[in-house]
Automatic annotation (TrEMBL):
Protein name: Peptidoglycan-binding domain 1 protein
Keywords for the protein's UniProt record, in alphabetical order: Signal
Residue ranges of every copy of the ARB-07466-like C-terminal domain listed in the record: 99-189
Highest taxon in the source lineage: Bacteria
Position of the signal peptide: 1-41
Gene3D superfamilies xrefs: PGBD-like superfamily/PGBD
Species of origin: Stackebrandtia nassauensis (strain DSM 44728 / CIP 108903 / NRRL B-16338 / NBRC 102104 / LLR-40K-21)
Domain Peptidoglycan binding-like positions: 232-290, 305-360
Lineage of the species this protein comes from: Bacteria, Bacillati, Actinomycetota, Actinomycetes, Glycomycetales
Length: 364
């Protein structure tokens, strides 16, 4: 089985504590309706950013079962509902059975980012609330500081579906295209996010002000030890931050570095959701799944960047041996990737793509 897949890029995020106007206008003109506006409602305020706009999110569809709502999606939902209080929430996560997810092969059933907690349905009606929807689309797709579709990219939105039309970040220049799925999406807008946006790793969340506690936390260790109730230290803090990012916070505030009952409960929930044995303790499989979370970006020797570091952490945990974590895909990283792929039953070619990431996220 090959593990080669198109490169995946990123966009959207949160911090705890365009459709071009012409395209949107054309979409609105396609249907003649009476519009009902929100009295005094307007799109969310746009903060000042200190970092460049993100790349467009590449297509990175659902491959696993992990329906717990992700923090970037939850905060985007709250942001929109605060701005448009006469609209409502139609849900983020959708129940699925982790046992029906083939860790290497495929997902059995329909495909939806709702199953990974990284899609949100905004309940607005195409016939009576198009004005609100179009305002949000324009807000996301407006050119800002010379960057087209700026907030769509900063938030990490992958695609939007509404009223029999779909707009993908991965082919945004094509504008709104006909959508022929079984659900016409006339009573809600569907937003799907890439993993970076869902995990609050895009510049909407990280590109303003001081970094958060977990953004500064150390995740790089020569080994990832087994952890249980009563343990403490930097490794516990790292695990708590990873759990928090997965949508399973261990405290109301910043992680405390103490493996307490609340941490054990979050670990057990994470294990149950992805199909691991529910021990409430962190072993190599749980570390691997926590560290491997993120996009299915294809990587191979010569690549550099934070996704390479993510891979190196996950391989260190999975192989229970030190893989240098320096963000550089060297021959040593290739050797580790091949060793892991062989262990996971994949083609051991050292090229890391969707199948390798899927196995890592499953804790294989």
């Amino acid at each position: 089985m090959t593990d080669k897949s198109p490169n995946t890029r990123r966009w959207f995020t949160r911090r705890r504590g365009v459709v071009l106007s012409t395209v949107a206008a054309a979409a609105a003109a396609a249907v003649t309706v009476t519009l009902v506006g929100s009295a005094g409602a307007e799109p969310p305020e746009v903060p000042e950013f200190t970092t460049p706009v993100d790349d467009y999110q590449a297509e990175d569809t659902q491959t696993t079962c992990d329906p717990t709502p992700k923090p970037g999606v939850e905060d985007f939902r709250d942001l929109i509902l605060e701005s448009y209080p006469d609209t409502s929430d139609a849900g983020i996560g959708r129940d699925c059975d982790p046992k029906s997810v083939k860790k290497i092969e495929h997902y059995e059933g329909d495909t939806s980012e709702h199953y990974e907690g990284r899609a949100w349905d905004w309940k607005v009606d195409a016939a009576t609330q198009r004005e609100q929807a179009d305002e949000v689309f324009d807000w996301l797709l407006k050119t800002r500081d010379g960057e087209a579709h700026a907030l769509l990219r900063r938030l990490g939105v992958m695609y939007i579906i509404f009223d029999k039309k779909i707009l993908g970040a991965y082919n945004v220049d094509e504008g709104w295209r006909d959508y022929n799925g079984s659900n016409p999406h006339t009573d809600h807008v569907h937003f799907s996010f890439g993993w970076d946006g869902a995990n609050q790793e895009t510049s909407w969340w990280t590109g303003r002000g001081e970094p958060t506690f977990c953004e500064k936390a150390n995740l790089d260790f020569k080994k990832y030890p087994a952890l249980k109730d009563g343990d403490s230290g930097d490794e516990v803090t790292a695990a708590q931050c990873l759990l928090d990012k997965s949508g399973r916070p261990t405290t109301d505030g910043d992680p405390n570095g103490e493996y307490d009952k609340a941490t054990a409960k979050s670990v057990k929930q994470f294990q149950a959701d992805i199909g691991l044995k529910e021990t409430g303790e962190i072993d190599s499989h749980t570390w691997t799944a926590l560290l491997g979370r993120g996009s299915n970006v294809q990587l191979q020797e010569g690549e550099e960047g934070r996704n390479v570091s993510r891979l190196q952490r996950a391989l260190t945990a999975a192989l229970e041996t030190t893989v240098p974590i320096d963000g550089k895909f060297t021959a040593e990283t290739t050797a580790a990737a091949k060793k892991y792929q062989e262990k996971a039953g994949l083609d051991a070619d050292g090229i890391v793509g969707v199948n390798t990431w899927r196995a890592l996220r499953a804790g294989t």
